[in-house]
Amino acid sequence: MVTIKDIAKHVGVSVTTVSRALNGYGDVNEQTRQRIIQASKELNYSPNSIARSLVMNQSKTIGLLVSGFTRESVKDNFFAEVMTGINEYVASTDYDLILFNTTSSKQREKTYRELCMERRVDGVIVQGIRTDDPYLQEVVDSNIPCVFIDIPVTSEHVGSVSIDNRKGAEEAVSYLISLGHRHIGFVNGHEFAFVSRHRLEGYQSALQKAGIPFCMEYTGNGKFEEGAGGRAALKLLEQNPEITALFCASDLMAIGAIKEIHASGRQIPNDVSLIGFDDILLSSYVQPQLTTIAQNMYGLGQEAAKQLISILKNESVAKHIIMEHTLQERQSCKKVKEKRSHK
After folding, report:
1. Which of 35, 74, 192, 232 is the most exposed place for a label (fewest CB within 10 A)?
2. What is the pLDDT of residues 210-248, one digit of tens each?
């Protein structure tokens, strides 16, 4: 049976271009459209498939809705790895994938349902939505199938994929404690991210299990940004000189911390041990190489796409899928030197 992938290969254009041309979208060059139509005739592509999709109210298109995708995100390959996983899985199916970006302000101008209707998507994968964003509740209330990434919210039509962020953070801090650190600072992201809440809980849990009191003065927010993360780390060290280790809730903030700490005349790990979260590409290239909690970002994307398509096909699927994570030991942490008593 001839598919639009066969037409795309024959004409030398993308599957998305073929789909949009056959469905009458106006953003396809007219000459290209005619070539696609001619190829569909030559290959005996049945136009009934289009009619069928219209009758069934299915476009065979999945939307990837990303919030907060900025130039800062380019340094952090988390988004890119997740999107690659999504794209490669969708490419193996008869669905197409389109990307649309949003912000908190945009969400107040157009509802989630309006956005999905305009883009004619059957379902959506959502990444980066904040806890205070209007779309969060709109997605839950909608009957449009959706899968969240790193947002542990589910409903009848909504699933989610993430790692266990609480456990990952707890393991990171427990690792520092095992090296003898008792005064551990924490650079979190921001208060409107689910992962921030969960990683804070993991930090607190590790301290509690070790019998170490939680100290609010040892925590700061770095907005998941390199610069802000570095400034927050340095501020914690300057205001609390007894701190011997820092846990950063993202590698990008940890990389910012490395820069600021070195600039202040301190050394990592001799003066301060440092551990991050994510295992982005840069974490193994900075000096010293960053110890971090590694998550399979590509796998998160693949699993999200797989879950959404299963929902679209009315197949039985777990509502919340938890992916594995690992502690990646490198060079940025060391044991605390024991202080010798002078008698």
Report:
1. 74
2. 999 999 999 999 999 999 999 999 999 999 999 999 999
Axis-axis angle for helices 194-209, 165-178 (nearest 10): 40
Pure H helices in the chain: 4-11, 15-22, 30-42, 48-55, 71-75, 78-91, 104-107, 112-119, 134-141, 165-178, 194-209, 226-239, 251-263, 297-312
Question: How is domain 165-295 classified at the CATH fold level?
Answer: Rossmann fold (3.40.50)
For residue 63, list its beta bridge partners: 98, 124
Residue ranges, CATH 1.10.260.40, the chain: 4-55
Q: pTM for this one? A: 0.81
**Rounded Cα gap, residues 5 and 93, in angstroms:** 10
Would you state the structure tokens that stand for residue 127, as one six-digit string?
């990444």
3-state DSSP assignment of residue 184: strand
Q: What CATH number has the domain spanning 4-55?
A: 1.10.260.40
Count how many Cα atoms sit within 13 Å of the Cα of residue 234 in the half-sphere of its side chain.
19
Query: Distance between CA atoms of 321 and 309, rounded to whole angstroms?
Result: 14
Residue 315: its pLDDT value, please? 86
Confirm or reject CATH 3.90.1010.10 for domain 61-164+297-325, answering yes or no: no
Q: Quick one: pLDDT at residue 338?
A: 52
On the 0-12 / 13-18 / 19+ scale of CB atoms within 10 A, 137 is exposed
CATH 3.40.50.2300 residue spans of the chain: 61-164+297-325, 165-295
Whether 104 has a pLDDT exceeding 60, the answer reads yes
Task: From 243, 249, 112, select the one nearest 185 (Cα to Cα).
Answer: 243
